[in-house]
Input
Amino acid sequence: MNQQVKNSPRVLLAEDDAALGPVMLAVLEDGGMTVDFAKDGAMALELYEAALEAGNPPDLVISDINMPKIDGLTLISRLKDHDKELPVIFVTAYSSVDSAIEALRKGAYDYLTKPFRNDRLLQVARNAYKQRNLEQENQVLKKTIQRTLGVKNIVSRSPSMDRVFRVIEKAAPSSASILIRGETGTGKELVARALHHASERSQHPFVSINCGALPEGLLESELFGHEKGAFSGAVKNSTGLFRAADKGTLFLDELGEMPASLQVKLLRVLESREVRPIGSTKPIPIDVRVLGATHKDLLEEIEEGRFREDLYYRLAVIEVEVPPLRKRPDDLILLAKHFLKELNEMNGREGCTLSQEMTDLLTSYDWPGNVRELRNAMEHAATLGEQELKVEDLPPRIRKGAKMKNTLNPQADSHIGSFIPLSELEKTHVLALLNFFAGDRRRTAEVLGIDLSTLYRKIKRWEKDE
Output
């Protein structure tokens, strides 16, 4: 018997007592509940699985413990395999109270001993339904908070960041691999963390590694783990970051720096969903979402034979580009004030602010080091400055860089722009380019159109002059 009541709790009732079952059914339906009635445990399991397949599972289950075919304890174990939070209420004779207590240990919501009053049955069922609703509402709220947590850590009101936020919102709940591109210092790891927080994996680890910071042998061990004795110095087993990030997210920063031999092994792990520690012959299954980041043009790296095309397409299912700070003019002062607020709180200072002169200079500089350089500059100024920060509190390279730009721009404010020697212009320009390419001297020399040895000599001379 099944009576449909609009917006009512759905109850799966399993009771083999021919006299008690129909009475309980009537009480529950009279209490405004929709009931699926089963005369034994096997039938209850069939009704549950059918309702689950139809997308309309019960909100709670009321079941006798002692039933033919499948008893109540077995039934709860099977149901909890589908829904760990499903509230189950057991009905038992006084002589079987020990079984009911065992059921509570297995996750039952409550139990009733026979005989019981009709109002008691309704009260327990309604309480279970209320708790179910509260738990579901909490889960929705929790997910909403998680999905906004990471994004709130990205300070921006710039239209150029809209694409980034859209990717976080739409792609985070999926399991797709995402490649985050952008210049050094733009905040690629913040985007990766926001993607993790907004995903279903947010309760599991977020693990990150800079692929360009470790030599090849150590990087392989860090990623895949190793067995004791696998190589000199391997005095104990190492889990590796893939296994450390199981069910969570692994963030591979500066992916373009990964050696070719490791790219092959990474591709194998991504395709097989298994990792084999160094020195082991046994593959270990993993469940990890991989996010990658790079400041390099990987398509160019592929053409030059430095990056595998098949790995690129495996990792870049979705791509997102984090714009440089110079293309986010609306964010510059917003970020500067945000960093100052953080630094004030960290250092226990009160209301360190920007002078108008300093604000003008900040907006006249190109910020080749992006957000990271801006934070560094704010920390420098907040450490050396007084209550109101002035231009003199900024690092010299930023003051010189802003002056160079304004010297070439007759529209600039006169108190910032001034002519400086050609040698200083050259030095500022070269160092800015070197910063832009994250210290890559070979690339800097190529762009400048000079020999690498010439660049080395210039840098050495400038270091001596300081």
Remarks:
- The first strand starts at residue 10 and ends at 14.
- Confidence is low (pLDDT under 50) at residues 1-6, 142-149, 410-418.
- The first helix runs from residue 20 to 30.
